[in-house]
Amino acid sequence: MAFNTKRFINDKVKEIKNKVGNARALCATSGGVDSMVCAFLAYRALGKNLIALFIDDGLMRKNEPLTVATMLRKRGIRTVVIRAAKDFFRALKGKEDPEDMRKAFRDTFYKTLGKAVKKYKADYLIQGTIAADIEETKGKIKSQHNVLSQIGINPKKYGLSIIEPLVKLYKPGVRKVGKGLGLPKAIYQRMPFPGPGLATRVVGEVTPPRVKIVRKATSIVEKELKKFKPFQAFAVLLRDRATGIKKGKRAFGNIIIIRSVESKDALTATPTKIPYTVLEKIQKRIVREIPQVTKVLYDISPKPPSTIEYI
Ligand code: XMP
Fold first, then answer.
1. Which residue, of 141, 158, 188, is where some domain finishes?
2. Can you give the CATH number for the domain in which 72 is found?
3. Mutate to test the pocket of ligand 1, among 27, 105, 144, 303 (most ligand atoms within 8 A of CB)
4. Confidence bin at 2 (pLDDT 50/70/90)
5. Which pLDDT band, with edges at 50, 70 and 90, does 140 fall under?
6. Looking at 85-176, which runs of residues are DSSP E strands?
7. Residues 23, 124: contact at Cβ < 8 Å?
8. Cα of 1 vs its chain's centroid, Å
9. Nearest CA to ligand 1 atom 7
10. Is residue 153 located within the same domain as residue 118?
11. How much distance in Å is there from the Cα of 253 to the middle of ligand 1?
12. What pTM, to 2 d.p., does this model score?
């Protein structure tokens, strides 16, 4: 049966209203498409009884805390930015194994939300988990940050009752709901952005200086590839380094990967066929604007066998 967007929205709005009643609920958004659409769906149901949280975990893209908070506030959603970078970097310190990093992120994320639920006297957390997140976590591909009860973790551990209105949908369905809610394309066509943020794009230890490098490189990649409208485009910082020449001197510097993929639902993906001249321009900008980087590579791996992110 074809997906009926209007009916889906009406049903979910009713469901959320029935569950939350006159209580208050929180939702958290990373600025990616799922959590943004979820926030607006919850707002339609709850109005002033919804508070959107943007957790500034130190792992977000350039200007995102302000961009996302503005998008939400402009449309009437009460929005709070929680500064928690120190907690996240402390939890990630010394961790290099991708699954250890993901679990440390998830634990800090839900502890932060647990505190917020108490502070704002909310009864529920509404989150934008989608079907693909659950499949990948259950399939042991990677532990998505927002999957708990489906793998036997009781949200009560964090003092949370969770509602997941998008849990049966895949990415194209989420975008239809965004459009059906009357949101501008800039919101429902947003690139997916993973909850654990730039931590999924740093191979090796996630430290503030290393995140700073990947954030700068990401902003260059996103800007230069915007016109190709890729499904997702970003930069990755490797743990390996490579010898190069900076200001006429030997430098053993960092390696940045350019990653850009085409996909419908993120379950499979193919690399974007970027013109060589554009890749050259990105390479030049990255080594010029980020002194620590000596080498830039383009990743031509599809999913499978690669995943989209690096950890
Ligand atoms: P992978 O790397 O598994 O990513 O091919 C598939 C899609 O999911 C996003 N992603 C995440 N989203 N929490 C999220 O909300 C996560 O922990 C997470 N890990 C990956 C990724 O950006 C891609 O769109």
1. 188
2. 3.40.50.620
3. 144
4. confident
5. confident
6. 124-126, 162-163
7. yes
8. 30
9. 266
10. yes
11. 28
12. 0.96
Pocket of ligand 1 (CB under 6 A): 133, 136, 141-142, 144-146, 192, 194-196, 200, 232, 266, 303, 307-309
pLDDT tens digits for 276-290? 999 999 999 999 999
* Structure confidence by residue, pLDDT tens digits, 51-110: 999 999 999 999 999 999 999 999 999 999 999 999 999 999 999 999 999 999 999 999
Atom of ligand 1 nearest to the CA of 34: 15
Kindly give the distance from the C-alpha atom of residue 123 to the centroid of ligand 1, in angstroms, as a whole number. Answer: 27
List, for residues 220-251, the tens digit of each pLDDT value.
999 999 999 999 999 999 999 999 999 999 99
Amino acid occupying residue 258: I
Q: Which atom number of ligand 1 is nearest to the Cα of residue 310?
A: 2
Residue 27 sits in which domain range?
Answer: 5-188
Report the C-alpha gap between 161 and 107 in whole angstroms.
16
CATH code (residue 261)? 3.30.300.10
Query: Is-contact 54 69, C-beta < 8 A?
Result: yes
Whether the Cβ atoms of residue 50 and residue 77 lie closer than 8 Å to each other: yes
